[in-house]
Amino acid sequence: MIHIDKLVKQFDGQDILRGVDATFEQGKTNLIIGQSGSGKTVLLKCIVGLHPIDGGAIYYDEVCFSSLDNSSRRGMRRDMGMIFQGGALFDSQTVEENVKFPLDLFSSQSEAEKRERVQFCLNRVNLNGAGRLYPSEISGGMIKRAAIARAIVLNPKYLFCDEPNSGLDPKTSVVIDGLIAEITAEYNMTTIINTHDMNSVRRIGDTIIFIYQGNKLWQGTKEEIGRSDNRELNDYIFAAEVK
């Protein structure tokens, strides 16, 4: 579980996040939605420690992550998996080498143990046989699946996804959503997904948080979102669906 308490973030003296409270549950897909400039991307970057915060606190289970020094945060990085927008694979490395990269950084396993773990993760995301290929030789959907394999190679407790369906066709988006939801339940991870894809919201939104102008205006489930009487949320849903 991750909990944020009265989170404040400023840039150049301007409030970007204004006292945001939220709880992201373990074993669930927790989605953050909101229009461009709403603060949702800043929120995700604050949670993972890429942006320092200006007020409030961030808790990973019982640990106050926002009060840790850099050395202590590094110790927690092993428990975090990241899926970046676009996949963010290293072009000069094979798929197998990309997935192995976190093990080289954080694991003391032997090379044979690392190769075994990499192959397990590639099989889990249905990329068996693609390990020796380079990112330029595989499709966008395969790149995202390779990014998922890399994110779970250390068996993390927390998984963060920034627009995982960006640039994908609708059919491939369904596959990626399903894979993230399956892995979240399988590994009992706390998964946080930053997205603008309302189809993803309705498919896998166990918990949904709507950010508007730096404030959390609504929180609920995929079943509840269609019944909301929040005007800003309904305007956002309508605008997202007519694009």
Uncertain regions: pLDDT < 50 for 5+ in a row?
none
Quickly give the structural class: alpha/beta
Query: Secondary-structure element order, as H and E?
Result: EEEHEEHEHHHEHEHEEH
Cα gyration radius (Å) = 18 Å
**Annotation, overall tally of beta strands:** 10
What general outline do the C-alpha atoms trace? Answer: globular
| Helix percent band | 25-40%
Strand ordering within the main sheet: 6-7-8-3-9-10
In brief:
The chain is of the alpha/beta class and 243 residues long. The chain is 38% helix and 25% strand.
3D architecture notes:
- The protein has 243 residues and is of the alpha/beta class.
- The chain is built from eight helices and ten strands.
- The protein has helices at 40-47, 70-77, 95-106, 111-124, 140-152, 170-187, 198-204, 231-242; strands at 2-11, 14-24, 29-33, 55-60, 63-64, 80-83, 158-162, 190-194, 207-212, 215-220.
- The chain has a six-stranded mixed beta sheet.
- The radius of gyration is 18 Å and the shape is globular.
- The model has no long low-confidence stretch (mean pLDDT 92).
Structural descriptors:
243 residues, alpha/beta, 6-stranded mixed beta sheet, 4-stranded antiparallel beta sheet, 8 helices, 38% helix, 25% strand
List the helices and strands and how they pair.
Blueprint: E1 2-11, E2 14-24, E3 29-33, H1 40-47, E4 55-60, E5 63-64, H2 70-77, E6 80-83, H3 95-106, H4 111-124, H5 140-152, E7 158-162, H6 170-187, E8 190-194, H7 198-204, E9 207-212, E10 215-220, H8 231-242
Parallel strand pairs: 3-8, 3-9, 6-7, 7-8
Antiparallel strand pairs: 1-2, 1-4, 4-5, 9-10
Helix pairs in contact: 3-4, 3-5, 4-5, 5-6
